[in-house]
Amino acid sequence: MIDLYTAPTPNGWKASVTLEELGLPYEVHAIDLMANVQKQDWFLKLNPNGRIPVIVDRENDDFTVFESGAIMVYLAERAGRLLPTDEKGRSRVMQWLMFQMGGIGPMMGQANVFYRYFPEKIQPAIDRYQGEVGRLFGVLDGHLADKEYLAGDYSIADIANWCWVRTWKWSGVDIAPYEHLQRWVQTIRDRPAAQQGITVPYDIKLLKSGDDSEEARKFAEDARKMVEMGKPKE
């Protein structure tokens, strides 16, 4: 059994979708980010960086893994699926996994902060990050023009990128110009394990309810408070 400490975010979904796809038994422990539970001493013993997700593999001497990409690699290797074992195949998957971790995730995250969460609307920053997200979407779209998945067969690279790209609307970036990316997003969305994984630890329904829903407004306000808490103290 694997303990999963997580919250309903793209990085959290990377772990839960992977677990669902691999069919590994796991127990969910929801972490209340708004209450700063991830900064409590007990959690920092699991992840010194104070971020979700974290897993503890009870069947492997309570081995603890933090960082969502590292979790995905560990789980795929443990199950022997979603990550090729040959040198070139593994490298292709790792390249696109790193693309998400170094590009898609950070840029969409910053777009969210400046477009959704900062009380001050700093338009040059919004334009900067939304523009970079659009550029990265174009990279994915071009690569997927003649490919069903990012690195050959369906893999953790697809899961990692999809968990972020599917939230495009929240970042304020239109996916309409990217025909091949849209097809890929829908293909993964149709997978039962992906559908289940994005309801962990609970289904926030945020992307279904729209920008102007009460849930969207509350989520943005809570995130704004987290941004404020993260500012350096004067």
Automatic annotation (TrEMBL):
Domain GST N-terminal: 1-83
Family classification: Belongs to the GST superfamily.
Record-given protein name: Glutathione S-transferase
Entry-linked InterPro entries: Glutathione-S-Trfase_C-like (IPR010987), Glutathione-S-Trfase_C_sf (IPR036282), Glutathione_S-Trfase (IPR040079), Glutathione_S-Trfase_N (IPR004045), GST_C (IPR004046), Thioredoxin-like_sf (IPR036249)
Residue stretches making up the GST C-terminal domain: 86-219
Pfam families named in the record: GST_C, GST_N
Transmembrane segments: none
